[in-house]
Amino acid sequence: MTTVAGRAEEHAMPQQPEHVVVVGAGLGGVRVIEQLRAHGFQGRISLIGAEEHQPYDRPPLSKQILNREWEPERATLRNRAALEALGVSVRLGVRAVALDGTGVALADGRQLAGDTVVLATGAAPRKLPGQPDGVAVLRTLDDALSLRDALDSARSMLVVGAGFIGAEAACAARRRGLDVTVLEAMPVPCERVLGRQVGGLAARLFTEAGVDLRCGARIDRFADEHTVELSDGGMVSAGVVLVGIGARPELGWLDGVGPGNGDGLACDANGRVLATDGVWALGDMAAWRDPARGRFHRHEHWTSAVDQAAVVACDILGVERPAPTVPYVWSDQFGLKIQVLGRTDLVDEVVPLHGEGLDGGPVKGTLVGYFVDDTLVGAVAFGCPAKLVRYRAPVTERADRAAVLALSGSGARLV
User: Fold this and answer.
1) Cβ neighbours of residue 299 under 8 Å, at least 6 residues apart?
2) How many angstroms separate the CA atoms of 169 and 173, rounded?
3) Strands (E), 9-93
4) Distances from the Cα of 309 to the Cα of 26, 160, 251, 272, angstroms
5) Secondary element (H or E) of residue 191
6) Low-confidence ranges of the chain (pLDDT < 70)
7) DSSP 3-state helix, strand, coil percentages of the chain (rounded to 5)?
8) Regarding beta strands 328-333 and 111-113, do their DSSP bridges make them parallel or antiparallel, or are they unpaired?
9) Phi and psi dihedrals of 51, rounded to 5?
10) Cα–Cα distance list, 368 to 240, 304, 408 (Å)
11) By CB neighbour count within 10 A (0-12 exposed, 13-18 middle, 19+ buried), where does 92 fall?
12) Per DSSP, what are the bridge partners of residue 265?
């Protein structure tokens, strides 16, 4: 049986694979398939997904779906018919359990052989020691639907973790009128992304919305699925408890693949898994070589998965990779959008460019620049997307301080 390309095309493109197996039916896996076809790949593609659902988008889970603004079908990335139209053989509801070279073993006993494998299986929610099964997490569509139903009948909610997921879940609960308590181990919410000072603005969003935010709070143990005991001896109970403290890649089934599975599968800057032949990885499970840090790093963001998919597809096909993009992530919290552009983790100075949030004024309309050696490497906007747009080029070009301050027209001061 010949491939879709036919023998003539196969001989015309000998460097390209005949069969690409994509493991992981989320955003990264679907975008790789789309990019392969967009670049003219005519060979076989197989897609394996552990969940029975059609491939879906994850950001709406903690936003539109949790708030009952969307039904689940609206979050679908590509349904089965659309994937088949792309010439994809789809196998959903079956988990990959082992990888031998470029052969994938499935939980149902079948083997799927390809000459190229793309791994995009994402990550699983981190859990606390002794966390009861009845405590909610929010990673999958089923998680979102279960939590949505629980919030509809609850009077109170306890959220462990004040990151983006925790904040969006707390917002959904407050919209329903629930009493909400949020426990955060760090001094401010989202400190790793926003930094200590700008994280203080995120904290104000919680408290101004009526959330009982407790930073620096440490959990000693779970008394049960509704109650936690803090390290200071205090007890906190709620009708619904959610733990949102990040995610970890599930790599146990990949023992022996690559140079060692730490916090992510180690890949080069094109997504090739180190010490393998014909294997790429992307998304939350993959730790790509990061020149800015000089080490491997996992980029756990929607836009990173999209950008990495384009790079992986080009590398597989041996075509020119796309131009580098600026990292971007957003979160909808308490009536406004927080947008993070660039590398806010690589910073030695923070400069307010718009708004008065850092001086105690309204959080909405505040835009902050992040500088390293007097060059702009990132920006964060609170409810002012139109202003943020003008800083995309300066972040990309690493504009100097004088040019950025002239653009802002704010006479900004160093803080």
Assistant:
1) 288, 305, 308, 327
2) 6
3) 19-23, 44-49, 88-92
4) 11, 32, 19, 12
5) helix 191-194
6) 1-14, 260-262, 410-415
7) 30, 30, 40
8) unpaired
9) -90, 150
10) 35, 22, 10
11) middle
12) 261, 286
SS3 271: coil
Instruction: Summarize pLDDT for 331-348 with one digit per residue, the tens.
Output: 999 999 999 999 898 788
CATH ID of 127-243, from 3.40.50.1820, 2.40.30.10, 3.50.50.60, 3.40.309.10: 3.50.50.60
pLDDT for the residue numbered 13: 42
The topology under which CATH files domain 6-124+247-317 is FAD/NAD(P)-binding domain (3.50.50)
For the chain, domain boundaries: 6-124+247-317, 127-243, 335-408
Identical fold, 6-124+247-317 and 127-243:
yes
Bridge partners (DSSP) listed for residue 212: 181
Rounded Cα distance, 18 and 44, in Å: 6
User: Which residues, in sequence order, are bridge partners of residue 313?
Assistant: none
Query: Do the beta carbons of residue 232 and residue 216 sit within 8 Å?
Result: no
What does the alpha-carbon distance between residue 128 and residue 160 come to, in Å, rounded to a whole number?
10
> Spelled out in words, what is the top-level CATH class assigned to the domain 335-408?
alpha beta
362-371: long-range contacts at Cβ-Cβ below 8 A with a sequence spacing of 24 or more? 363/201, 363/204, 363/205, 363/208, 363/336, 364/336, 366/201, 367/391, 367/408, 368/198, 369/404, 369/408, 369/412, 370/195, 370/342, 370/343, 370/344, 370/346, 371/347, 371/401, 371/404
pLDDT tens digits for 337-396?
999 999 898 788 999 999 999 999 999 999 999 999 999 999 999 999 999 999 999 999
The dihedrals phi and psi of 226, each to the nearest 5 degrees, come to -120, -5
Q: Tokens 């992510």 appear where?
A: 264
State the Cα–Cα distance between residues 155 and 73, nearest whole angstrom: 28
Token reading at 394: 């300066």
Q: Under the phi-then-psi rule, with left for phi > 0, alpha for psi from -120 to 50, and beta for the rest, what region is 256? A: left
**CA atoms of 189 and 165, how far apart (whole Å):** 11
Query: In a 10 Å sphere around its CB, with 0-12 CB exposed, 13-18 middle and 19+ buried, how is residue 338 labelled?
Result: buried
Distance, in Å, from the CA atom of 98 to the CA atom of 101, rounded to the nearest integer, reads: 10
| C-alpha torsion 106→109→110→116, nearest 10 | 30
> CA nearest 188: which of 172, 209, 207?
207
On whether the CB atoms of residues 112 and 134 are closer than 8 A, the answer is no
Residue type at 88?
A: V
